[in-house]
What we know:
The protein has 198 residues and is α+β, with helices and mostly antiparallel strands. The protein is built from 2 helices and 9 strands; from the N terminus they run βββαββββαββ. It has helices spanning 51-59, 149-165; strands at 15-21, 24-29, 32-39, 79-84, 103-109, 129-133, 136-143, 175-178, 191-196. It has a 9-stranded antiparallel sheet, covered by helices on one side. The longest helix has 17 residues, at 149-165. Belongs to the HEBP family.
Amino acid sequence: MGMILGKITVETPKYEVLRTAAGYEIRLYGPSVVAQVTYDPTQFKGDKDGGFTLLANYIGALGNPQNSKPEKIAMTAPVITRTVPEGEKIAMTAPVVTREGEEVTMQFILPSKYTKAEDAPKPVDERVVIREEGERKFGVVKFSGVATEEVVKNKVKGLRESLERDGYKVIGDHLLARYNPPWTLPPLRTNEVMIPIE
């Protein structure tokens, strides 16, 4: 019932709020270990969230874990996605907005008990990669509802303009963080657009 009503009951990443501004926050996130997959949505019949199943299988959310132990790994939130235009090298991770010729990188942040990549069970599917993320600073705007391409585009534009106006240097593409399963009532969903800054 809580999942339908938007209650987040799983582990979420720890961060420090460095500044609260009109409509956004500046946050400092600590290091984490992530499981990620990068894919062309056309591999999944155009489904921009097609990588979710690969990651869910790795942690055992859809049955037996598909990792070397096999060890069931607790689900966390958010699921982070990033869309990479064709030909661009992937530096971090991020959104759910896709167009022809783009790749999507989707990440699950692993539970905090995994402090190094080698602590996490090795994926059976080689498309799933385990990596460490260092400390990062983001400008973040939170919103509810369905994170459609148009909504995300507008949130990114507004946040980028606010950050630049307030003197922050943007150093990468935006990430889209979604905290709830798709059956959560749209007005009760928690989403965030995150833009990395210096």
